[in-house]
Amino acid sequence: MSGDAPIEDLGGGWYRTPGGKKVQGRKAAEEKAEIEEELDARLEAAGLRGADIDELAIVVGSWHGRPNYRCGHCPHADLNLERMREHVILTHLPAPGPQPGPMIIRTDRFGNELAPEEG
Ligand SMILES: [Zn+2]
Which residues surround ligand 1, an ion (CB under 5 A)? Predict the structure, then answer.
């Protein structure tokens, strides 16, 4: 995935991010898209792509009759589930390793994949 995934112009100042969120304002959509990309990368690196809130250790409680989301890793809490997911992923999941470039697969002249060189 590259940083130039398309942001869809929905008209009326609304945009849809590559992650499917409707955001008002182009700049906000671009920022959201960047966060989505970072979240995806971390989930992928942690093997938690598509994880539900249990797997992310988000505890659902209540606050004045509204659902309140608490972090299972620290005392942080938020009434907004999406912000809570971002908190858990960005704060508690390890950053993906330094491999920003495309994965290079070496092949022989027949197109068969070769093992990566050791050392
Ligand atoms: Zn936390």
Answer: 71, 73-74, 76
